[in-house]
C-alpha cells in the first residue's frame, strides 16, 4: 500500500508554488534547497503525477499541480487561522454563550451585570437566538435552551424551573367579573407560541371548558406576551421564571390562586460533554447556580405571599404528549 504524503510535503509544495522557485521557498521555510527538492520529488512519486514544469530555476505548475495548489493553499490558510485563534484563546478570557431570547431578556439579562462585576477580566459574548447551537460549526461554549430536555448527544443540566400560572395586571383583573377561574370567562387569553405550557393544556388539565366568548392573542415570544399583559390587554399564561420580578413588584398578579402552579424543568444548559473541561463553562455554570438559588428563593416568597400551591408535572410526558 502506498504511503500517504505527510503534511510537510504539502507545506513545501505550497510554498514552492507560491514563491516560484525552490530557493525562495527554502529561504521562507528556513531549510536547505535540497530538502525542499527532496520533498517535492517524493510528493510527485507518492501522488503519481508531475506537479511542476521545470524551466531553468523557475517552476510553473502543471494542471494537476494547479489543482493541488488551490486545495493545499486553502487547507493551510485554515490551519494558520485556527492556530492564530488558539493563540488568542490562550491570551484572552472569553465566554461565548447562546440563549433562548425571552429567557435572555427577562431572566439572564438583568443578572449579567453581576457576572461581569465578579469576573472583570473576562470578555462576554451573548447570542440570543431561537435556534440551538451547532457546536461543530460555531464558536460557542454553552447554550441555554427552553424545552423538555429531549436533546441527544449533549451534556444537559437543568437550570431553571418553569412555574406556570395565569397572570394579569391589577387594572385588567379588576375589570373582570367573578372570582378565580370564573374570571377567565370573557377574558382575553394571551399565549406565547414558543411556550411549553399553553392555554389549551392548562384549561384541559384544570377541567375547564373553552368558552365561546373568550378571546385570544398569540404572540411569537414570551417577552411580547408578558408585555401585553403588563399593558392591561389580557391574561397571560406564563412562568415565574420570566415574570417573578413583575409579580414581586405587583405589576402582575395571579388570576386563579386556587389552582396549582405547574412546575417543571424548562431551561437547560447544553454543550458537548468534552466542553465541561473548559474554564469558561465551569465558571459560568458555577455562577448561574448561585443565581438560580436566589431566583428560587424569590419564587418561594411569591408562592407564600399569594397562598399558591405548586404541583410538579412531567413536562416531557404531559406537555409533549408522549
From TrEMBL:
Domain of life from the UniProt record: Bacteria
Domain HTH lysR-type: 5-62
GO MF assignments: DNA-binding transcription factor activity; sequence-specific DNA binding
Signal peptide (residue range): none
InterPro entries: LysR-type_TF_proteobact-type, LysR_HTH_N, LysR_subst-bd, WH-like_DNA-bd_sf, WH_DNA-bd_sf
Record keyword RNA-binding present: no
CDD domains the record matches: PBP2_GcdR_TrpI_HvrB_AmpR_like (cd08432)
Keywords assigned by UniProt, alphabetized: DNA-binding, Transcription, Transcription regulation
UniProt cross-references to Pfam families, sorted A to Z: HTH_1 (PF00126), LysR_substrate (PF03466)
Any one biological process term the GO annotation gives: DNA-templated transcription
UniProt keyword tRNA-binding present: no
SUPFAM superfamilies reported for this sequence: Periplasmic binding protein-like II, Winged helix' DNA-binding domain
PANTHER family documented for this protein: HTH-TYPE TRANSCRIPTIONAL REGULATOR, TRANSCRIPTIONAL REGULATOR-RELATED
Assigned protein family: Belongs to the LysR transcriptional regulatory family.
UniProt name for this protein: LysR substrate-binding domain-containing protein
Source organism (scientific name): Marimonas arenosa
Amino acid at each position: 500500500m502506498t504511503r500517504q504524503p505527510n503534511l510537510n510535503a504539502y507545506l513545501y509544495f505550497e510554498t514552492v508554488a507560491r514563491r516560484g522557485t525552490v530557493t525562495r521557498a527554502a529561504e521562507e521555510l528556513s531549510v536547505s534547497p535540497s530538502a525542499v527538492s527532496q520533498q517535492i520529488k517524493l510528493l510527485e512519486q507518492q501522488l503519481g503525477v508531475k506537479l511542476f514544469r521545470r524551466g531553468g530555476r523557475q517552476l510553473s505548475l502543471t494542471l494537476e499541480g494547479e489543482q493541488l495548489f488551490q486545495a493545499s493553499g486553502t487547507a493551510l490558510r485554515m490551519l494558520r487561522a485556527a492556530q492564530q485563534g488558539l493563540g488568542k484563546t490562550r491570551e484572552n478570557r472569553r465566554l461565548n454563550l447562546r440563549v433562548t431570547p425571552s429567557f435572555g431578556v427577562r431572566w439572564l439579562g438583568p443578572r449579567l451585570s453581576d457576572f461581569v462585576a465578579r469576573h472583570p477580566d473576562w470578555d462576554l459574548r451573548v447570542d440570543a437566538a431561537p435556534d440551538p447551537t451547532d457546536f461543530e460549526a460555531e464558536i460557542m461554549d454553552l447554550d441555554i435552551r427552553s424545552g423538555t430536555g429531549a436533546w441527544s448527544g449533549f451534556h444537559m443540566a437543568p437550570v431553571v424551573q418553569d412555574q406556570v400560572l395565569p397572570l394579569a395586571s391589577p387594572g385588567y383583573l379588576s375589570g373582570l367579573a367573578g372570582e378565580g377561574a370564573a374570571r377567565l370567562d370573557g377574558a382575553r387569553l394571551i399565549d406565547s407560541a414558543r411556550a411549553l405550557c399553553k392555554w389549551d393544556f392548562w384549561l384541559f388539565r384544570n377541567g375547564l371548558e373553552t368558552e365561546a366568548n373568550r378571546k385570544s392573542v398569540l404572540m411569537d415570544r414570551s417577552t411580547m406576551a408578558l408585555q401585553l399583559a403588563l399593558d392591561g390587554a389580557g391574561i397571560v399564561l406564563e412562568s415565574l421564571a420570566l415574570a417573578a420580578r413583575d409579580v414581586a413588584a405587583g405589576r402582575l398578579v395571579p388570576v386563579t390562586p386556587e389552582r396549582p402552579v405547574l412546575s417543571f424543568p424548562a431551561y437547560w444548559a447544553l454543550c458537548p460533554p468534552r466542553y465541561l473541561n473548559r474554564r469558561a463553562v465551569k465558571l459560568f455554570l458555577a455562577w448561574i447556580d448561585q443565581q438560580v438559588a436566589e431566583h428560587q428563593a424569590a419564587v418561594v416568597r411569591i408562592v407564600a405571599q399569594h397562598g399558591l400551591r405548586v404541583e410538579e408535572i412531567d413536562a416531557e410526558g404531559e406537555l409533549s404528549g408522549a
